[in-house]
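Sample entry (383 residues):
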Amino acid sequence: MQGDTRTGLLETIRDRRAAIEVYVREKEPASRRLLTISIVSSALAAALTAGPAFGGEPFAETVRAGLSLDRPSKVWGLLCLGALVVSVTAAVSAQLDKSHDLRSRIGAAEAAGVMLDGLRTRLEFGGMSIPDAAQEYQDILAGIPFVHESSADPTGDPQGDGGFGSTRRRARLRGWQFGIVAVLAALLLAATLVGYVRGLAGPADGDPGTTSTPTVSGTPNPSPSPSPSVQEAVFAGRTGDGRASLAIVVLAGRASAYLCDGRELEAWLEGSVDDGRLDLTDAAGTTLTGTVDGDTLAGDLVAPTLSTRFVATVATEPAGVYRARTVIDGVEALIRWVVLPDWSQVGITNLDGAPSDAPPLQLPGGTFTTADGTTHRAERISP
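Predicted structure, serialized as tokens:
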């Protein structure tokens, strides 16, 4: 009778040991998966917001140009949405791992397994009394109430009793869902980087497929030739590195251009237009050279703090160059803006030689309000 009791207790210990092995085998990958998803998602959220945070509007404009989007706001919107989704994924993954306390439970289960192995050896070969063994067995189980004997059959395979199988399936499905979110965010980040690199590169000579600016429809003409619009037109665009905007006004063989980054860089350039080619300079040594091809003006811009390609397209009102003279705090101020075809704008207020942000220009009317609450109207420079 005592031998049967000892044998039954040994079998119970073996079954419980098998249940612990199943629990560890199931929960350890789940814990690692949740931790990995949380870390990767947090990193992706930081990466998605890094560009807009540090690059600001020039970053968004460069990506827009590289991906041929119509508005920079789409870049901001997609990146912010992606960062929001992966941030939520990281928070939920971390909270699931924490609320289930998987790491500490796995450690407790592994320790209980080692103690059960020792108990079984002493009971089987060491002559340990059955009452002492039963009491120690109960003490060990008290430390792992989350591991149930029904979790495994004699072969060690998970069973559906008590919902363990369905819980495992739900956990795996949740892990896959979080993983898919992380992969989609990584693809969004990769697309943003590709757009940024393409935007920095600007249009490739001889490769019309790489430019993000509109081209003239109709019969292709392999050699650039001036059109009648070259004699009278307004062009607007951005530098290839996305740092600044510019607008160029062409009239009767002469051209004027305004370059501005909205903070401190600005230049007013003037020069000639000869057979569709522009050659403009300013007093500080900034130069702009470019060639008109249909509705597109592309070339090179060299300033003391900037050297880059640029692309501008024919701009209809309200796009173009605006300027206004007013008095601020008793000092005459010159305010100029560049308005792009998508109505985005940058401008600088020059107050006795000190640059500062220009007040927002209300479009299409061209009015603006100064700090004292006075409303003024800016002049759009036309050919």
